[in-house]
Structures are given as C-alpha cells and as structure tokens.
Amino acid sequence: MRSTIAALLFTVSFQARADKPGDPPHQRLEIGDLPLEGGGVIKDFSLSYVTHGKLDAQKANAVLMMASLGGNHHRIDFMIGPGKALDTNKYFVICTDAIANGRTTSPSNSKAQHGLSFPRFVIRDNLTAYRKLLAHLGIKHLVAVAGASMGGMQSLQYAVSYPGEVDAVIALTPMARTPAWSVAVTEATRKALLADPAYDKGNYTKQPEAGWRAEIDILFGLATRAPDGMKAKFPSALDVIPWMKGLEDAQLKAGFDANDWMYQTWAYDRFDISTTPGKPFNGDLAAALKSIRAHTIVLHDRLDLLNPVEEAKEAAEGIPGAKFYLLPFDPPAGHFTASAGSPAGVEFTNKVVSEFLAENRL
Predict the structure, then answer these.
(1) pLDDT at 284
(2) Helix or strand or coil: residue 322?
C-alpha cells in the first residue's frame, strides 16, 4: 500500500498536473485556420496558454515554455516562480499547450475536424502557432525557450528555425531527431490502444480503459523508468505489480484522450531538426545542430528509456558552445529526472539553469 501511494504522488507530479486555485488564469488566442507544414489546415485553431510574471516595457524579458508529450503548460512549473531558475520577478514566462494535448485545438475538442478527421501535423506546426501568440503579445525576441522531453525538442527546433530570435535554449531530456527506439516505444503504446475493442477505430464513445492501462504500463511503468531505480524501489520484486495498478489508476484519473495521444505521438515520431523547411541541411543533423546560435544547456539522466541519453549528448556536442549536464543520481530516475517528482532533480536543475542564465547575463 505504501508503494502504491508513493506511486500516485510521484506519477501525478510527473504528468503535467491539472489547474488548481491560485494558478494564473487560462488564456486563449483564437487564430482561425492554422496552415500546416504538410499542406493541410487545422480549422478554427485556438491556442491555450498561461503567463507568469510581467512583460517589461521593452518587451524584452520573455521566456517561451513548450509542453511535453501528453503534458500541458504545467510541465516545468518546478522551474518557474520567484527565486527559481525562471524567476518571475525577472522574466515573463509564457507557458503554452501543444497541438492535440486536449487544451489547445485537438482531435478531442475540435468541432470542425473531430477525432480521426483531424489533419496530421508535425512538431514544427506548434512553433507556427506560438509565433502567432508572440506577435499578438508584441514580442519580437525571446530571452529563452525552454521545455522538457518534447518541450526540449521544440526548444531545439525553435533555435534552428529562428536563430536570430532567441538568446538561450534550456532543453531537458531532449532529442534533435527521434530515433528508432523511441518510435518503437510510441508504436507499442498506440498498439495497446488499438487492441482494445472499445477504441473502435477511433470512434469510441468512452475512453478505452483496457488499452489505456496497457499504454500506461508501457510508457510510465517501463519506458520512463530505469532498471536500477526500479530495483531500489522494489527490493521485493513482486511488489511492482500492485504499484503498476496504482500507476494505471492515477493516470486514468488524470485523463487523456486516445486520439489526441495518437496524433501527438505520430508527430513525435517524425521529429527531425535536419528536415527544417527553408534550411540547407538536407537531412544533415550535424549541420542543423551547428546552425544553432543561442546559448544552449542540455540536461539529461544517465539512463532514459524513452528519450535515450545518447541522443541528447549528440545534440549538445553538435551545438557550438553548448553545455551538457548528466544529472548525478544513483539509482537513476530515468525520464522522470526532469520533473517535479524528483526532488534532487528539481534542486540540481534549478541550480545549474540559474547559473547558466547568470553566466550568459540573461
């Protein structure tokens, strides 16, 4: 029972949490039709976001935060606030919700393109929406872009797509392009949902619970963990089974839509900064990384089974002047390192990111 309760607390802290009283008010930018890189259009597009801190008179203190896979604008709250790395006494932090996360326009909430009639998109399409928000706010330059997991990936992409418009990149557990391993993980989660008859080819009337339980076991029970960490957590190996049940219950209660997951993971699988339109990279990842001019910091755990650490290290080594930090924890926390669920990770991340920003006078 103790293990199950701990799991619930840890899991909810990792998953982007729900809003609570006292949070900044939700805001929406009604964009209209959002053109997509692949030629389609998301109709009646609405971008969800919140802001922390105050935009200065010169509109020169803005930080753009981008959400993780399945996450929302709360994903890196552990870094945002007075005295934290993204100090809201100094910075104006814009926290966005990604396409298909259930808050910004998604298969689950679109009236014009509901469910599987929603168009396929890529991660770069999120940046198109974010830039419309920045223009709406009158912001032409960013102090930093920041995020964890898919948020870190979007941060790298922003610096590649718009190199003169951002001073710094803060990327936690990122990848510069999605490798076969990560595609295999997300494909397994999709097949778990598809195998549940309740999914009904995307035409479900209630969430496919059995499929979600299998998906949660794959993603949160295995891919975001580390074997050494699990061994330390469960000296009696069979204790992991009730813990997994608690994990499933907590995630089901948090809620996420099956079609939203399908669309976000399809975009995740196809991420590659070296295919950025209008750039001369032609699939050359080294050239794409070398083009990043922003001060860059990359943080990762030594063992991550969702976004392999080797991918983040390769990205950092290819970016001129980038700093790479391997979080020094034993046993490793895996993908959970970059979350509020890892107190040691919270302290370490806030410390090194604060120092990074100070060193670069940002």
Answers:
(1) 98
(2) coil
